[in-house]
Amino acid sequence: MVLQNFKTYLQSRAGVTEEELHRIFEIPQSKIFEKGEALLNKGDVCHHAFFVEKGLLRSYTIDEMGKEHIIQFASENWFMSDRSSAYFNEPSDFYIEAIEDTTVVLIDKEFIELAATISASFRQYNERALQNHIRHLQKRINLLLGATAEKRYLDFINLYPDLTLRVPQWMIASYLGITPESLSRVRKELAKRNFKPH
Amino acid sequence: MVLQNFKTYLQSRAGVTEEELHRIFEIPQSKIFEKGEALLNKGDVCHHAFFVEKGLLRSYTIDEMGKEHIIQFASENWFMSDRSSAYFNEPSDFYIEAIEDTTVVLIDKEFIELAATISASFRQYNERALQNHIRHLQKRINLLLGATAEKRYLDFINLYPDLTLRVPQWMIASYLGITPESLSRVRKELAKRNFKPH
DNA sequence: GGCATGCATTGATGTATGGTAAGAAATTCA
DNA sequence: TGAATTTCTTACCATACATCAATGCATGCC
Lengths: 198, 198
Known about the structure:
Two copies of one chain form a homodimer. Chain A is α+β, with helices and mostly antiparallel strands. Chain A has a domain of 116 residues: Jelly Rolls. In chain A, 51% of the residues lie in helices and 21% in strands. The first copy, chain A, has nine helices and eight strands. In chain A, the strands form two sheets. Chain A has a four-stranded antiparallel beta sheet with strand order 1-8-3-6. A four-stranded antiparallel beta sheet of chain A has the order 2-7-4-5. In chain A, helix 4 crosses helix 5. Chain A starts with a helix and ends with a helix. Chains A and B meet through helix 3 and helix 5 of A and helix 3 and helix 5 of B. The structure holds a DNA duplex.
């Protein structure tokens, strides 16, 4: 079977060698979540990072008005977690849920410790991922501060063309911080302009 | 001279011992920037983190429309840096500038390496700071996605009461993602409601 | 196949925030 | 201290996006 994506990921992205891989690979477990199933609920402490073997996840918060705000999507070869909750051992502020039937690899602190001990390259890669995460959050803040709904949407489809097809529109709207109706109008407007350019 | 804040910070916050402190403290340099002076410009690679001994800094971007968006403030005992630029050795997307005459301690990678080698506690603290940074960015995204201008402002003055007094209003507005005019109106509205409660 | 359910679109209208412009207040600096 | 400059406020109007409600369009399900 299994975890082929994860293994490939460790080798080609994190630079873990074949030999190291064998020593590391006692540990991680995989698990299947059905569409709509929760991987993490608000108030729970997040004990894992989830590596997506196959499928699609989202994380989101619910505000005092009862509105969902999508924080992040994760499809194949992406990680999903609440780093803060995991690191500080605090109840999480958000939910993680499967958008499609999804196979994930459960990564706990012990695995990361072990892998980092065995493979210096992995440790380095992990650090790098953390920095990348910050860069990504920074960029998102910038877009939310400055860009119109249309620009944010264009940025999204440019960055995540695959997700644009797999994720329901109302979730994309939620990620962008607008209503589904507004997104529909933005799309209409874009379509119009593309058919009759300039 | 001094760097008293920085030393105190290392001891009481990062848990560095007196003895370790002496071994570490060959290195860091301090520098004074005048009000309005730039510590980092867009396009430059950020080689330092700046620890604020005394004074006040801001980091900001300028979008295609020429509008500033303030990313972060840093007053006494805070760090300011472009982590992404420093880590990836890439040109920075943003500017760092002194809002007041400001004394900073220049922290480069070598210092952090050295301090982390000498003091395990420092290494740990550094990791913790990184995670905190992520948590902070996450929270900001959430506010930008969901909260009104008023709520964002209330959150700001609650979190940074000291800054509210020291920072010009138009900069707070920029941080919140609204215009100075709008912030002025929000404040007026709040004042009205506070004088005639409920 | 028919019906329920969830999602997308559309139109009418509401609201929060933006833009502009002018003057008041505060701060800076010679 | 007074003039220059910056910041803040206010009023009026413009706009982007939200809200509400109706309809259309799939999809899944018994």
